[in-house]
Amino acid sequence: MPSPSYLSQEDHARISEAVAKAELQSAGEIVTILADRSDGYTDIQLVWSAAASLLVLCALVVAPAFYMGLYDQFFAGWGHEWTPRAILSLGAGLVALKFGAVFLLQFWQPLKFWLIPPPVKTARVHDRAIRAFKIGAERRTVGRTGVLIYLSMREHRAEIVADEAIATKVEPEVWGDAMAAMLTHVREGRVAEGMSAAVEKVGAIIAPHFPRADDDVNELPDRLIEV
């Protein structure tokens, strides 16, 4: 299934212009990425399905007469003898049914992402941002002055990752203003405005530490990468 597009061509152009303008202030190179999600979370989907299966198996142990009665009512007609094999078959059938039902239900994205624990979302977004930074910005500039602004929509999380030269002079907490400026807009559905605000803040943070040289060249693309 293709990822939804959150921005129009005009929005892309607006963010690219914001990047170009911010880079006129400093030697920093700003990369922007907008992701629909940062992971497929299939492992979490399997965990919830397995947990639901275990719960139904526990329920069968606690109240076997209830499930046996349901089976007799709907499938057995005149009833039949409950042998150990029949009970095991009932348990296996319930486990398979519950596992499949919960697994399929999680293909409904609002439910799937509601069931993912927040720390897991945070960790996966962070890991994806680091991987994207290593591919698209890390050590790809002469002065090691790349910065990645990464926004993951499904998880409602964002990351700002800086190359080593910037990281030695700017503490991670300093990016808080840029994050706040971005998320204020994003929470209200103004994604392009949020990304542009973050770009502006990041440019202002970098400028005092890495002023733009006269012979500075644009080393990384200004366009937003939407994945």
From TrEMBL:
Keywords, ordered alphabetically: Membrane, Transmembrane, Transmembrane helix
The record lists the membrane-crossing segments as: 46-67, 87-108
Asked whether the UniProt record includes ATP-binding among its keywords, one would answer no
Q: Which domain of life is it from?
A: Bacteria
Asked whether the keyword Membrane is assigned, the reply is yes
Show where the TPM domain sits.
Answer: 142-204
Q: Which Pfam family is one of those matched by this entry?
A: TPM_phosphatase
Q: What is this protein called?
A: TPM domain-containing protein
Q: State the organism named in the record.
A: Novosphingobium indicum
